[in-house]
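Q: What would this chain look like folded?
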Amino acid sequence: MSEPLTTPPQTEPSRGPWLGLGIGAVLVAGVITFLIYSSRSSDTRYVRRAEVMQATQADPYAVNLPLSEIKMFEAENLVGGKSIYVEGKITNKGDKTVVGATIEGTFKNSLDQVVQRENHNLMIILTREPADDLAALSASPLKPGETKEFRMTFERISADWNGQYPAVAVKLVTTK
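A: My prediction, written as C-alpha cells:
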C-alpha cells in the first residue's frame, strides 16, 4: 500500500505581479524611445539652435529671405535687467513656403570684435494691438512673395557691447 505524504506539496511562488510589471516597463520604455526618435526628424520641430559664439553657415535658401527696416529697442524687465528687442521685416522672394528659420544676431565691441552671437527661432508679430502677439513661423508660414514683421529678444548682452545695432542674418531655413 502507499503511504500518505507527510510533507505538503511545494507551491511555486506567484510571478504574476512581477511579470506584469516587467512587461509594462518594457512597453513604456519602448514607447518613450520611439517618441524621442521620431521627434528628432519631425517636420514641425523648431529649427535647431547653434552654440553661442559659433558662426552658423547660412542655408542656401536664406538668400531669398532678405531682412529690412531693422530697428532696435531697449526696455527694462521686471527684475531690473534690460532687454534688447530687434524688430524688422522679412520677405520671402523664393518659390517655397518657409515654415521655420533661425536668425543670428552678432554683437561687437568698440574694437569691432565679436563679443556675443546668438541664434533665435524666427518669431513673427501676429498683432500689435492691444498687445504684441508673437508666434513661431511654423504657426504662420511665410509664403512666396509675402512680407512679415519679426522680433528677436536678447536678455543678457555682454557688458563689452558697443551699443550699436547687432548684425542680423537668416541662417537656418526650413521650407515646405
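The CA atoms of residues 14 and 76 lie 65 Å apart.
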